[in-house]
Specification:
five-stranded mixed sheet; 6 domains; Immunoglobulin-like; disordered N terminus; mainly beta; 753 residues
């Protein structure tokens, strides 16, 4: 058996929460260098065959042996046992693993962890898997039920560094098992009862029909039926008693049952609840065979009304005539309790019921009444605006709209007589347009001396720029030639009012087509549907419009906290294609940093995608939350925010003080580090504080005030080494020394925020 050195990679679970200190012995890594005592680096776990390939429920033989440092087979210490598990994805115990019944000295907890009573000889045992996939076999040697590794693995079913430090060596050719699904399940029928629809879906297929949950009254249940068949033609059901496992792609979809057994007809009922709008997936697995059922959830129950555009200047009386529509002045969005944009609304306010409309403030001469007002949805848009059946006289107004479920919004504005036009404005919603794309119409209006705004009539429009394919001289919209040679060129659009002798010019840059997404923020609060605004950008980072959006998706790729329930959702209505902007909603129930892949697809089947790295915290303000650095004495490997990195200078103990390379720690927490080669002075700036120290000098300057250290910094491998506690704590970092329980002294140092 070839010895293998195990390097324990620290997971975020041990250090993520502020004030949580890793327990002593966390980095107490075996092997134990003694004859006759089991050594984890010498001991082993392996399959009998090289990378065996089996079907679900078929037996796989594995072998476990305890060896000492001399590679001699030994018995475990008192209370020592071997624990076996399998991982399908890194650091996740998969409950598909089980032990063949009736094996002496093997206990199966039913959750994926086997306990092995092992003696001074190789132990052979048979295992099997209930689901298909590629699995990696792991084993750990743990002494005593009070050890942290025992609790982590057996009680909490978590893989932590304490567990990994006790893992047995694994042969790469004899450490994996590939499991294929048995052939007794060949097809499924997905039956939607409302609306009626039945679809046959082959194994590993995706249903074409979407389960639609119209969430009109908050959380609403939806049911559908799945029948399991043993033939591809879906004529022979598997009958009663087959276990079907259910799972979802998001926490926004909650299942009534995670497992359910088929009835006499081979069918199961799937009931789910939707808590937010979006497009999701439900996974149905029978005997290791799986299909995907798409789910679309909609909502029409209003939780809030949002004034996304309000009148920014007085409206001219000649504009606010009878039948006036406020679209260019006031736009209102309806959102549900999760912040999702509602495309359709059932509340009575939208129908114009006068009981839900109130004129809060109006000029004394105004005869405007509630019955004259109505909220209407703008054609082709997801926002609403106000329409009035009566002309508005000059003065200040406040209109109040209330839904039948008690939500309200006030719309203040002013109407004024238009004086003399003093300026002409020509504006587009964006400053860039992509090749081959059409720029929407311009907003052209006059402003008088009081800032009163009215639409400009009788204005001539023109353009300059070889990139223009076609130009609409009435509304200012234009199409750009589909030729890359025009990238970066300018298109100048000019509006001229001959009567008022006024001119306005807008300059538009021909940008690249959309290349990806740019997110406005990357931090938010726990248990909150955080809104993340984003732009579709070209290669230079400029926002660009795209074609019609046909589908969107957000996938949580990873989370630094495995226990956190992270979800991300948005709908096509949350993306304004013409402007190249959108909104995404993300949530988590625990502090974590998650990677979220976001996709937008247009009607040309082009994708615009980027990965959002988002940190959830209690406040949403501290970008350093969950940051940590772990360094081991004498090791050139460090763990920075759950990633293993190499460092040029290893931490050392000198003069009974622990010294560490300053730059690694400082930069991990966002500090700025500078070094003057001539004076040998190091300057660190962090959150408004400045620290200065000099090589071989005990003097430390904090914001210009002198302090004296008991030891001086020195240089090792061209890196400044500093006394860890004194310096780090002056910069606001928390320092925790991890002691070696067996050998004594400090083994590692943890820096956290």
């Amino acid at each position: 058996m070839k010895n293998k050195k195990l390097i324990a990679s620290l997971t975020l679970a041990g250090f993520m929460a502020a004030g949580i200190v890793p327990s002593a012995g966390l980095l107490d890594v075996a092997p134990i260098y003694a004859a006759g005592v089991p050594s984890v680096s010498a001991s082993y776990v392996e399959t009998d065959d090289n990378n065996p390939e089996v079907d679900t429920k078929d037996d796989v033989e594995i072998k476990v042996g305890l060896l000492d440092k001399d590679n001699q087979m030994v018995a475990p210490e008192a209370g020592g046992k071997v624990y076996v598990w399998a991982e399908k994805n890194n650091n996740v115990i998969d409950d598909a693993l089980s032990a063949k019944a009736g094996q002496a000295g093997v206990t199966d907890d039913g959750k994926g962890v086997l306990t092995i009573d092992i003696g001074a000889a190789e132990k052979k045992l048979d295992i099997n898997f209930s689901r298909s996939g590629k699995y990696t076999i792991h084993a750990a040697y743990i002494v005593g039920t009070g050890a942290g590794a025992y609790t982590d693995l057996v009680t909490n079913h978590k893989i932590t560094s304490d567990v990994e430090a006790r893992e047995l060596a694994r042969n790469s050719d004899k450490g994996t098992v590939t499991v294929s699904a048995k052939t007794n399940v060949k097809a499924f029928k997905v039956i939607d009862l409302d609306p009626a629809n039945t679809e046959t879906v082959p194994v590993d297929g995706t249903a074409g029909h979407k389960m639609v949950n119209n969430n009109t009254n908050g959380i609403q249940k939806k049911k559908f039926k799945v029948t399991v068949y043993s033939d591809a033609a879906a004529t022979k059901s598997v009958g009663r008693g087959m276990q079907v496992k259910l799972d979802t792609s998001s926490n926004n979809i909650q299942l009534k049952d995670k497992t359910v057994n088929t009835d006499n007809s081979g069918s199961v009922e799937v009931e789910f609840t939707a808590t937010a709008q979006g497009e999701y997936k439900i996974f149905v697995n029978a005997d290791g065979n799986e299909i995907t059922v798409p789910v679309t959830t909609t909502s029409s129950n209003v939780d809030k009304m949002v004034l996304v555009k309000s009148p920014d200047a007085p409206i001219a009386t000649e504009v606010a005539e009878s039948g006036f529509t406020f679209e260019d002045y006031a736009r209102i969005e309806f959102r549900d309790a999760n912040g999702s944009l509602l495309k359709s609304v059932t509340q009575k306010v939208v129908t114009g019921d006068k009981d839900y409309v109130k004129v809060v403030e109006k000029p004394s001469k105004s005869k405007l009444e509630a019955k004259d007002l109505k909220l209407v949805q703008v054609a082709g848009k997801d926002y609403y605006t106000i329409k009035t059946a009566k002309a508005l006289v000059a003065g200040k107004y406040v209109l109040r709209f209330a839904t039948d479920n008690g939500k309200t919004i006030d719309v203040p504005f002013e109407v004024a007589d238009f004086g003399t036009a003093k300026s002409l404005k020509l504006e587009y919603d964006t400053e860039t347009v992509a090749i081959g794309k059409t720029m929407p119409k311009a907003d052209v209006y006059f402003l008088d001396e009081k800032g009163v705004k009215k639409a400009a009539k009788g204005v001539n429009l023109g353009y300059n720029g070889y990139a223009v394919q076609t130009f609409n001289f009435t509304d200012g919209s234009f199409t750009v030639k589909n030729d890359e040679k025009y990238l970066g060129t300018k298109i100048t659009v000019t509006a001229v009012s001959d009567r008022q002798n006024l001119v306005s010019i807008a300059e538009i840059t021909v940008a690249q087509d959309g290349r990806g997404l740019k997110f406005a923020t990357n931090t938010g609060t726990l248990n909150n549907n955080n809104q993340v605004d984003f732009q579709i950008v070209d290669g230079s980072g400029k926002t660009v419009g795209i074609n019609t959006v046909t589908s969107v998706n957000a996938i949580v790729l990873s989370s630094s906290n495995k226990d956190a329930k992270v979800s991300a959702n948005f709908s096509t209505g949350d993306v304004d294609a013409a402007k190249g902007t959108g909104k995404l909603f993300v949530t988590s129930d625990k502090p974590t940093t998650a990677e979220i892949q976001v996709f937008v697809r247009d009607n040309r089947n082009q994708y615009y995608a980027s990965t959002l790295t988002y940190t959830f915290s209690e406040t949403g303000k501290n970008a350093n939350i969950n940051r940590f650095v772990v360094m081991s004495i004498g090791s050139n490997m460090a763990n920075v925010n759950n990633a293993n990195v190499s460092i040029e200078a290893a931490p050392v103990i000198k003069s009974n003080r622990t010294f560490v390379p300053l730059r690694v720690i400082a930069e991990a927490f966002g500090a700025e580090v500078g070094y003057d080669e001539k004076t040998k002075k190091v300057t660190v700036k962090n959150e408004g504080r400045t620290l200065e120290l000099t090589q071989d000098d005990k003097k430390l300057m904090i914001d210009g005030k002198e302090k004296l250290m008991d030891v001086a910094p020195f240089v090792s491998n061209a890196r400044v080494m500093v006394p860890v506690r004194f310096v780090a704590e002056e910069l606001g970092f928390k320092v925790t020394a991890i002691r070696d329980a067996k050998r004594g002294g400090t083994s590692s140092v943890v820096f956290s925020r």
